[in-house]
Every structure is written in C-alpha cells, then in structure tokens.
Amino acid sequence: MMTKKLNIPFEILFLSLLVLSANSCCMWSKGELQNTYNLTEEQKNLLAYTTDTPLNFLHSGGFQFQLQVIIDQGYRDNRFGDSCQYYDRFEFVNATVIGDLPLINLSFSIIQTDVNFENASAIFVSERRVNRDGALQTFVPNPTLINEFEINGVLYTDVVEYESVDPNHYLTKIYYNSTEGLLQINYLNGEYVQLQP
Amino acid sequence: MDIEFIEAQSPVFNTWFQDSTFVQKQVNSSIGISDVASLSHEFRDRGDSTWDDCGGVTQWLSSTSIYRFNKFPYQIEIRFDNYGEEDGFLFSTFYGVQGEFINRYESTYRFVSQRTNTRNPIQLIANFEHLGVLYSEALEIEFQQSSQPSEINRMYVVKEVGIVKLVLNNNTQIDMSTL
After folding, report:
1. Is residue B68 within 8 Å of residue A131, measured between CB atoms?
2. Interface list for chain A against chain B, based on CB atoms closer than 8 Å
3. Is the ipTM reported for this complex over the cut 0.90?
4. Which of B75, B99, B150 sits opposite A100 (nearest CB)?
5. B141: β partners
6. What CA–CA distance (Å, rounded) separates B173 from B155?
7. Read out DSSP for chain B?
8. What is the pTM of this model?
9. Cα A72 from chain centroid (whole Å)
10. For A33-74, what is each residue's pLDDT tens digit?
C-alpha cells in the first residue's frame, strides 16, 4: 500500500474552533468587521459533497441502506476587543451524513483560519450523539494518506483515515477522500459499513 | 433510596422491578447490526399526596430504567410506579437521528385497574418464549402511533430482566440479552 505524507495544521484548525466558541460571551454585540477569511477553491474541493444526493451503503452483515447528506455553509464570527467591538468572519462548509439504521450522524467540516499555512487544511470530522445530551465525539486524521484503498474491487485514492480520540468509542475509524466523501466506517465490535458505487 | 423500602411496598412492584445490576445489554438484530445498549436506573420517592381532610396520604414511588443505544435511533424509558394501591408502567420510546429526538410515544399499564393506553395498547402475555427461555409473563406494548419503517412497532418486557425484544415497523427483529 503506497502512502504519502499530508501536512496538516490540524492543531491550528482545532484551536481556531475553540477560540470561536470562547467568544460566545460577545454574542450580543454586533461590532465592526475587521477581516473576512474566505475558503480557497482548493479547500472547498476537499469537501466531496456538493449536493444532497443519497449515498448507498452496505453493512458487513449484508444489510443495504442509504445515508442522507445535508450541506450547510456560511460564516462564523469571532468577536474580540475589550468591548467586543470588533469581529472577524471565517467561511465554513459543512456536510452532515445521517442515517437511522444503523444510526449514523457524522459531520465533515472545513473552516478557514487566520493563520497562513502552505497546504490546505484537513476536513474536521465529528459525531453528534442524540443520547449523550448533544455531546460531540471527534476524530483525528492520520497524517499519512492511503494512496490505494480498496472496497469490493474498487480502488479509491488519497484516502484519509480518521481515528476516534476515545479508544473505547463504539465507532473506531472513518475513511474519507475528497472525491467520494465517506467511504467506510469501522466499529469496535468488528462490524463495518462501506460505500456502494 | 433504599431498595428494601421499595420492595416492601407492593408485591407487584417487587416482581416487575428491573434488576439495577443490569447496566449493559447485548443487542442483536435480524439485519446483522449488533450493539451494546447501556442502562441507567433511578429510584425516586416522589412524595406524598394528601387526599382527604383526615390526612389520608398516598405515597408515590417510582423506578425508572433508561436504555441508550449506539447504532439504533432510540432511547427507551421504562418507569414503574407504585402509587397508593395502584401499580403500573409508563413506557416511553424516543426516536431521533440528527442530534435530537423528533418522535415520542407513550403507553401506560395499570395492574390493579387493568387499564391500558388505547392508542398504544398493552397486553399481558402468559408463557412467553424468547431465545429458548420461557417466561411466565410478559408485557407486549404496541406503538401503533409510530410510522417510520425503522421505528419501534412492538416491545416485549419481562419481569426483572426488562426489555427482551423489539420489532420494528419494517419487521426487523431486535433481541436483547444480558451480558
């Protein structure tokens, strides 16, 4: 299996998200727009989904099902200043992939940052659990890309493997590429679901 | 709350009470998806209701068990109430996918008055067999209000063990057993 390194300033992306959430106390002040950080076309192309076309998947036990895609995009504001008198805008695009049997609720997001970096950011992957009071489970990308990832005889390239930050989480790994999107989910009990062409 | 205090209140409460040592259940389905459900239990003294001028008091105790799933879009709550002379169940099922529950169905069963919910009826079944085990009694709850193919149509509850089986609207069978 050929691999190559992906330079991912993931920590920068994640810290930016934390900064954005920490400024929620300024939410009542509109403030003055200082900077707008738009996503580049290269970054937007990392998110495979542009329409809400249903996805066909197959469970390892033989069960066929569909997942729905919901796309959301816009800007997140980050307020700052002694009186929250300023704010910057950061463009984001988010695709949520959902299904009820099996229950799947994964978000694939990309949000611009105010830090210059050479390579495009990686997709941020998270799972929102209904029965955990909305708690967010995040997944960390392996910096080594998988050049060839095979599913039922179909080869997918430049695949990113995401791993749960909680080693005991029931959902252990997610495989994704910027062409097809979600390819496979691995579960702790050995089950998996795979994209069907 | 002291469990011996609850058990002393009514024989029915005692026998239908769900064992709180069950905190996980193995979940297997006819479509090959398996899971581990987590259970939480809570006992509450909901206080006394004074119902006459002579100080007649009705005591209300409850035992609630909540089932949470990873791979199935449900949360199920079973609450057993001992209210004065009456014992009964409140069954609640929640269905949701995208970060919140969108549907909720309830059904109640009263042991003494033999009353049940008409929209989601409950039957007491004798000699219920499940996975090779014969139970003397089981409650079958039919959630007739549910409509989505993957929502719960029928649920089977047995004494002490709790939920043992679910049948979905699309006829998927889900079996639950203690780990």
Report:
1. yes
2. 59-63, 70, 96, 98-103, 105, 128-131, 134, 170-171, 187, 189, 191
3. no
4. B150
5. B122, B155
6. 10
7. --HHHHHTT-HHHHHHPPPTT--EEEEEETTS-EEEEEEEEEEEEEEEEE-STT--EEEEEEEEEEEE-SSSSEEEEEEEEEETTEEEEEEEEEEESSSSEEEEEEEEEETTT--B-SSS-EEEEEEEEETTEEEEEEEEEE-TT--STTSEEEEEEETTTEEEEEEETT--EEEEEE-
8. 0.84
9. 12
10. 999 999 999 889 899 998 889 999 999 999 999 999 999 999
Find out whether A19 and A78 touch, Cβ atoms under 8 Å.
yes
Q: Report residue A43 CA to chain centroid gap.
A: 12
- Tell me, yes or no, if B67 comes closer than 8 A to chain A by beta carbon: no
| Backbone phi, psi, residue B14, to 5° | -65, -40
| CA distances for A105 relative to A111, B39, B73, angstroms | 19, 22, 10
